[in-house]
Fold this protein.
Amino acid sequence: MSTPQETAHRIDAVRYFELVEEGLIAPDDRVELLEGVIVSMPPQSPLHAAAVMWVEQKLRETLPAGTSIRIQMPFMAGAFSVPEPDVAVVPGCVSDYIDRHPAKALLVVEVAVSTAVQDRLTKAPIYARCGVPDYWIVNLRDERVECFSQPDPIGRRYMRTERLSGKAALALAALPELHIVAADLFPRRVH
Amino acid sequence: MNEHVVGSEGYDTTSYFALVECGILAPDDRVELLEGLIVSMAPPSPLHNAVVHHVGQVLARKLGPDTLVRTQMTFLAGPKSVPEPDVAVVPGRNTDYLRRHPSKVHLLVEIADSSLAQDRLTKTAIYARCGVPDYWLVNLRDESVECFSEPDQIGRRYMRSERATGAMRLPLGAFPDVVIEAHELFPQSPEE
């Protein structure tokens, strides 16, 4: 169990951005704040980058008005977490986030080549806790989408998880108009 | 997937190793437990691998055959952290660790390119808290060694830190007679 003192050592979002201001985190340091801990992000492989772009394009095709897509940008996931999810669908438009990062998302997607475990065991509780209604891990290793839905913010977990592939439809609580199947999210070579 | 449930305090070493036992963590998953969080390790670059090997060899040569130098192996850093530091100089013999991972060290070294901020901000707090007497952060970006010593376990920080380059000597409290200069940790190509 954590003692109050241990909790006090966690870095909160306010302190995290101060560390950037103070130069202790450099602009080119690729890091996230997860549950009060500053964590590196691995350098991106071409496959990972291509898959992120692919997911973004697929979502954009059917995205309803009044929402916008952010790629690898800060998301305020509670007082102690500032992850930079690969893709986030957020309410509103760009001008809504000029002086603050979004704290609400309709969908968060992480693309996993080597990070599936972290995305599953560390990120899922973070997104569940701040009430992200749908969270997908696009797992490039086994070409499946791990879909987490029905967040329980107090229990910090999703009540429903499925692993989908092929033509299985991905349903979204907050974006019922989105029609997408699992296979759509994996980049294909086009010649 | 109820096994994904974790309290606000995160995983401790027992629940972390239980994830390995029950197959949720596979042996080839490259992760560390840091302050209760399961965190991915970056895929190693060639330079990172080469410097880890070089630093391991330099330390083994300087400290002699009776000193145990481990590279990228598990270290128990308190109740909620199980990092795999790049190089660890550990007390005792290899056979002391057949059934348990070490939880005491003389020196830890992390070699940082993409992981610099994590090594400087997160690992320092973990290593200070569990009383690692000397922690060297080999900064590949500017060829310096950031040396942390005099851990304050309660404050979770090192009281002393200095940046060493070139011929500056690196502090190593457990081996006061051993001289290692900063530049020795960086491999040099023959043509340089």
In short: Residues 54 and 188 of chain B are 10 Å apart (CA to CA). Chain B touches chain A at residues 1-2, 4-10, 19, 24-25, 29-31, 34-43, 45, 114-118, 120-122, 125, 156 (CB under 8 Å). The first strand of chain B starts at residue 31 and ends at 34.
